[in-house]
Amino acid sequence: MTAQEQAAQKVPRTRARAILRPLAPSTYLLRNAGKTIPLTSVIMLAVMLVSSIISMIDSIPYSIRVIYAYSKEMVGITPRGDTSQTPKLLDDVRKHSPVPLDRIVTCRASGSQVKSIVGKWPFIMLGLSQPDMQYYLKRQGMTALVGRLPKPGAPEAVVSRPVAKNLNLKIGSAVQGPDMNESYSPKWVKVVGIAETDRWVMVNSLEYQRAYHYPPIDLGMAFAKNLQDQDKLDHWADKYFKGQHGQIWAYFQIEKQTKEMFTVLFKILNVVIATLALVITFMMGMLMNIYQSQRLVEFGLLQAIGYTKRQLLKRVLLEAIAVIVMGWILGNGMAYLLLVMAKKLLMDPSAFALQVWDPLAFQYTIPIPFAILIVAIGTVVLRFRRFDPVGVVERRLV
Q: Would you say 277 and 371 are in contact if contact means Cβ atoms under 8 Å apart?
């Protein structure tokens, strides 16, 4: 047994590891937590701030996709106000569809609205016949129905669970009415059923819509037999009816319009996040410089007893990487916990959409540790280029 190992047996485990592995990155970090924890905390807070902000901002376009996700199940076709065109348009779909069809539905729609974190958004009350209503709700993933379906011609409606939470509706609540400006109907339309599904849905009787809502225009919906083919059907309909009376409503259009709508917003966010990353990076560079200056005696003595600059540089770089990676991981973890609390306390009671683990927010945090690492490497390399161990040993710190 070597003298070094014998000495290690007589001291506590942490000190024993330090004796046996004096250049291990963990040695200094664990024995000097008072200096390394503040560095890690700064990185953690920066990452948490960026991730939380991006997740909250991204919840706006995400909410649009969630609220109008019912359109994933079908492609809607309107005749642009010409009532005579609806049968022809639907017949064209039957004859020329590139995929097998499950059902083509004739319907009507009236205006309504739902709430979001940025205000009120337009929505539709879809008028369907009884068989089509059952099919539509099943297609939207309904697992159960609390209450019943609307009676033909009656001012009654079924809403999905998210809509009920969002508008604070119960069985017997009015979802449309004479004095509801954005959700107008000549009669009070009461909720008689709540569909258990995560899709946002409002449906009522086709007969009621035809009797009380104008303009008197029938619309159409086409459902692919296999859900995997629905996107193909949507794109085909968009191309086929271009320049004709048919206007298409499809989910891919929502995704495209949402992306275009928020392009400028995210460009502004890029500037803000880049500025924040720049400030944090320079601040970390100054902290790293102070941090390394306090260790000159340690580096000088180690080099004086035989350790090379390359070994010392490797140690310091590994320490910096460990601190940065740990701060980044903790920052994302803290952001996740913060968003979980925000979702539970602020978003879920009104069925607002929020991704607690948003891939976009995660991507925005990646440049921060890399920028800090580059500055840290530059600081360390410049420090070691002019490092004089003899001067340190002689107590002439340079």
A: yes
Tokens of 243: 């320049």
> What secondary structure, in 3-state letters, does 169-232 show?
CCCCCEEEECCCCCCECCCCEEEEEEECCCCCCEEEEHHHHHHHCCCCCCEEEEEECCHHHHHH
Return d(Cα 71, Cα 57) in angstroms, integer: 23
**Mean per-residue pLDDT, 52-71:** 92
Q: Are 85 and 79 a contacting pair, CB within 8 Å? A: yes
Neighbours of 215 (CB within 10 A): 7
**Separation CA 110–CA 87 (nearest Å):** 20
The two beta strands, 119-128 and 174-176, are unpaired
Expressed in angstroms, the distance from the first to the final Cα of the chain is 40
What whole-number distance in Å separates Cα of residue 257 and Cα of residue 126? 22
Question: Where do we find the tokens 């909410």?
Answer: 63
Higher pLDDT, 138 or 319: 138
Residue indicated by tokens 């492609």? 75
What's the Cα-to-Cα distance from 87 to each of 74, 90, 157, rounded to whole Å?
Answer: 17, 5, 26
Its pTM stands at 0.82
Q: How many C-alpha atoms does 69 have within 13 Å on its Cβ side?
A: 17
Parallel, antiparallel, or unpaired for β 189-195 and 156-160?
Answer: parallel
> 346: Cβ–Cβ under 8 A, 6 or more apart, which residues?
352
Beta carbons of 372 and 281 less than 8 angstroms apart:
yes
